[in-house]
C-alpha cells in the first residue's frame, strides 16, 4: 500500500493555513499587524518617562511597575487590558515550554491568568510628579529608561518641534513627544478596531442566524427593520451619536467610541450571515439534527455556526480596518477619542492648520493608518482565498 500525498492527508485547517501562508500579500498583512500589535502591547517598555530600573541610596527599584498596574490615564481600562497582555503573553509562552507534553498546561495557564488579575484589581492610581530624568542626573543614582524616555502626556519640547535626535518623530502642538504618542495611539486604534468589530460581529451573527434559521414572518420582520437601519449613512449616524454623548463628558471616551461603532457596524454582517444560514439550512445535516430532536440552540451553535465561520472571520478582518478608519475620522473631527489620550486621528487634527509646516504630524500618523488598514485588508483577502470552497 503506497502512501498518499501528504498535502491531501493534511487536515482542512492545515491545508487552509498552507494556502494562506503561500499568498505573499497575506504574509505582508500578518507582518503589518504584528508591526502594530507588538509595539502597542509593549508600549510601557518602549516609551516611558519612568525608569524601568533604578538604583539609588534605598537600593534597586522599578518605578514603572506601579503605572503598569494602575495607569495614569483617563482610559485606564484599555491601558490595563494591554498591560495585562504584556505580562500574560510571556507567561503563556513560558508555561507552554515548561508543560509542553503535560496535561497541566491548561490548569497552569488558567491559574496564571487569574493571578495576574490580582495586582491590576488592587493597584490604585496615584499622582507622581517626580522628575526621574533630573533625578537620574544626581550623583550615585543609576537609572535605565525605555528607548523613548518620555510618556505620552509629558511636555518635554517646544510646540511643533521638528524630528531630531532627541525626539525622533518631533513634538505635537503642546510639546509632547510624537513617537511616544504614536505608540500609545496604536492602543486606541487597535482597541477600537478589535473590540468594536467584535461587538458588531456578535450582534450581526446573532441577528443573521436567527433570521435565516427561523425564516417565515420572523425573517421578514427582522430584515425589514435591518433595512430601515441600513438607510441611515453610517458615518453621519456616528457623528450624531458621538456629538450627543460628547456633552456628557465621559472619561472613558474609547469605550464610548467602541460602543457606538459596534452598535452601528453590524448591519452588513447580518445580511451576510443570513444568506449563509439560508444555504446551510437546506442541507441534510441540519434536517438530521431536527429529526434527531437536537435542541435548536445547540443545532445553531454547535453544528451551524462552525460551517459559516469562514465568511464571518473574513468579515471580521475587513471590519477591523473599517473601525480603525472610523475612529480616526471621528478623532480628526474632534468627536472620537478625547484629549489628552493619544490617537492617530488626534495627531492628524493638530496639523490641520498648516499640514505642510507640521508635516511630521501629517506623515507619521497617516503612514500608521495606511499600514494598519492595508495590513488588515491584505489579511482578510488572504483568508478569503484560503477559505474559498474552490
Would you mind describing this structure in some detail?
The chain has 18 helices and 3 strands. It has 390 residues and is mostly helical. The protein folds into 2 domains: 119 residues, no CATH class; 208 residues, MetI-like fold (Orthogonal Bundle). Strands 2-1-3 form a 3-stranded antiparallel β-sheet, with no helix packed on it. A hairpin with a 2-residue loop joins strand 1 and strand 2.
List its salient traits:
390 residues; mainly alpha; MetI-like fold; 2 domains; three-stranded antiparallel beta sheet; 3 strands; 66% helix; 3% strand
Low-pLDDT sequence parts = none
Question: How many H/I helices?
Answer: 18
Q: Which structural class best describes the helix and strand composition? A: mainly alpha
Mean pLDDT: 86
| Termini gap | 30 Å
**Looking across the biggest beta sheet, what order are the strands in?**
2-1-3
Kindly identify the CATH topology of the largest domain. MetI-like fold
Helix share bin: 55-70%
Beta-strand share of residues? under 5%
CATH superfamily of the largest domain: MetI-like
Number of strands: 3
* Largest β-sheet summary: 3 strands, antiparallel
**Helix and strand succession?**
HHHHEEHHHHEHHHHHHHHHH
Reading off the top of the CATH hierarchy, the class of the largest domain is best stated as: Mainly Alpha
User: What is the level-2 CATH architecture name of the largest domain?
Assistant: Orthogonal Bundle
Overall outline: globular
Q: What is the domain total for the residues?
A: 2
Give the radius of gyration. Answer: 24 Å
